[in-house]
Amino acid sequence: MTSDDTLFRAAARHLGRRGFLTGTGAAAALAFAVGLPAAGAAQAAELDARKITEDPFTLGVASGDPLPDAALLWTRLAPRPYEPGGGLPAARVAVRWELAHDERFTRVVRRGLATAHPELNHTVHVEVPHLEPGRAYHYRFRAGGWTSPPGRTRTAPHPGARPASLRVAAVSCQAYHDGYFTAYRHLADEPDLAAVVHLGDYLYEYAVDATGGARAYTDRRLPAHFARETVTLEDYRLRYALYKTDPDLRAAHAAHPFVVTWDDHETENNYAGDRPENDVPPEEFLLRRAAAYRAYWENQPLRRPQRPSGPGMRLHRRLRFGRLAQFDVLDTRQYRSDQAYGDGWRVPGPESEDPSRTMLGAEQERWLLDGWRTSDALWNVVPQQVVLARRRNVPGPGYKLSMDAWDGYPAARRRFLDGARTAGADNLVVLTGDVHVGYALDLKADFDDPSSRTVGTELVATSITSGRDGTARPANWGDLTAANPHLRFYDGRRGYLRVTFDERLARADFRTVSAVTTPGAPVTTAASFVTEAGAPGLRPA
């Protein structure tokens, strides 16, 4: 157990649940427990980077959250990524970075020095200001005599610009033990992506055996510490290292900026707010959540406002791509009410339909509605985690709904859709993950009346690997399509979603691979749909 994990547990022993959640002393204790480097405080000794004898850039590079005038660059130093500490001592390391107009770095426009702190597991987050809007940049890092692989990023358009088009990809659910990240290899080759939107389940907390589960390695053996569920800070850090050593994931990060949000498995399956899936003391779960959130921030290209504080982390945020599109990135895990009726697929009733139930929490819900009211973007895009549209599991009476999705929070869904309408967010596109299948759904004013007004579009990105190979028509395809006439498309294969916005319409291409349990499968477009600006409703392209 690392010293950080020991401090986490020491803090827990002195905190009751009420103090943990509401007391300033508890927050201060936990902030101390996570050991963040503080300005003016005594710091770890500095390691001479020239003494690093193995490549420290094994986890690649990444960029994220593009702004019109700034880029966010990420890397982590880990010469031995499968070891606690990544093979480096508990010392600071100086890391140089460069940003250039060209991939050969002959026209460097910015360069600087950053510090990889051991308290942050030698991760580096560099925010580069004073850049030109709407253009590509190339970047790299250096430590001692080592140079990272290059990355390519892109700034957002000028706030007042109306670009002719905007193309993004959406991905979700990448269980390492369920297969190869082949879809990422194809995604890395996609041209002209402004961003890749990751909708959650970047990693899974479940054990990964020595042969990588469905990957069935014959040329390597993974260390035994991966063959247990992630609980401690060290567990989560090591699991990110396992995922980020995958060459296809590294290629996608190097090729495009990512916009990330989490779902449940970055912490624990189907947790809700401060409620764990399993029956453990609340203070123990919140320590686990604090560890998971900290490891998430460390290992993702996120800016300083997203840096966690104790067991909380403000992940919801707003990104603008000129006046063409506004992206309101949501967090549907941290603030939600507990799932009704014990979770799972249940017959809806008074508990699930209680109007006080929330998916976003009051503050995030107000933030979203305020953002819609002030938006001057043509397209209002909402990346979030769980299916918003209603999904009955069978046609006719006796149907069940998923208590983990917005179906378990119908009053919150009504506030969401009514809020978009009253705010004038007419061209609403919701991007969703979670369910390991691809859906195209019309969002209805009244899901009980198929002829009611369509108020928006929901596009659900299938998984990268979760669920293994999948099939075009899963076993419940007939029931689900018959029970939900607003469901325009349903495919159960792995892959990603590509969405292109322009002045007239938004086009969704569902990109699928034939297999993930064996590497190298080709990618095809399973289906394409469009929805027109000012006339919501999906139709085949």
UniProtKB/TrEMBL annotation:
Residues 169-510 form the PhoD-like phosphatase metallophosphatase domain. Keywords: Signal. InterPro entries: Metallo-depent_PP-like (IPR029052), PhoD-like_MPP (IPR018946), PhoD-like_sf (IPR038607), PhoD_N (IPR032093), Phospholipid_Metab_Enz (IPR052900), TAT_signal (IPR006311). Gene3D superfamilies: PhoD-like phosphatase, Purple acid phosphatase-like, N-terminal. Residues 59-155 form the Phospholipase D N-terminal domain. PROSITE patterns: TAT. Residues 1-44 form the signal peptide. CDD domains: MPP_PhoD. It comes from the Bacteria. This is Alkaline phosphatase. It comes from Streptomyces kanasensis.
